[in-house]
Amino acid sequence: MADEKYSLIALLFADRATRAEGGKANLHGVFQALISEEYPAQHENMAVFFKFTVPRGTSSVPVRLKITRPNGAKEWIPQLNIPVADRFAEGILNIQGFLFYEKGDHVFSLYVEDNCIAKYIIEANIGTPIRSPEDDYIH
Q1: CA angle 124-66-54, nearest 5°?
Q2: What does the pLDDT look like over 80-108, one tens digit per residue?
Q3: For residues 23 and 119, what is the distance between their CA atoms, to the nearest angstrom?
Q4: Is the pLDDT higher at 69 or at 137?
Q5: What is the dihedral of CA 128, 129, 134, 136, to 10 degrees?
Q6: How many angstroms from the chain centroid is the CA of residue 122?
Q7: DSSP of 28-86, one letter per residue?
Q8: Which residues partner with 60 through β-bridges?
Q9: Which end of the chain is more exposed for a tag (fewer CB within 10 A), N or C?
Q10: First CA to last CA across the chain, in angstroms?
Q11: What is the mean pLDDT of residues 123-138?
């Protein structure tokens, strides 16, 4: 899966991601599963954090996210051009109001150019959701 040109450092999904004053990424509520009493279920805000190395001399790279639903349907998040600093490309993609149409594995594939460098699976299940007292997110 990984391409020799790019080396994945991190691919994580969270309820929220912010940047600290010095530029560090802060992830809040990293998750890999969603529990809902029924489907479709909406996650109000998902933050996708990614970081990977790139070849020397690269100034920016095109990044896309492919979503494969449990029924096999595929969707693409539009391409983003990510700037490179010191051979590292890093980004936070905020997805507002993402719908999980059905229970099962939702596979998120991170593409750089035409190369899939990582996959992240979010398992959607039936159950009683856990809600954070300070947030209104389904977990």
Answers
A1: 120
A2: 999 999 899 999 999 999 999 999 999 99
A3: 25
A4: 69
A5: -120
A6: 10
A7: EEE-SEEEESSSSEEEEEEEEEEEEE--TT--EEEEEEEEE-TTS-EEEEEEEEEEEET
A8: 83
A9: N
A10: 28
A11: 71
Q: In which band, very low, low, confident or very high, does the pLDDT at 3 lie, cut at 50, 70 and 90?
A: very low
* Predicted local distance difference test score (pLDDT) of residue 129: 76
Contact (CB, 8 A) for 15 and 47: yes
Q: Residue 136: what residue type?
A: D
Q: Are 138 and 40 in contact (CB under 8 A)?
A: no
> Could you give the maximum distance between any two Cα atoms of the chain, in Å?
50
Does residue 21 sit in helix, strand or coil?
Answer: coil
d(CA 118, CA 78): 17
Q: Is 127 exposed, middle or buried (0-12, 13-18, 19+ CB in 10 A)?
A: exposed
Give the pTM: 0.88
Taken as a whole, the chain contains a residue count of: 139
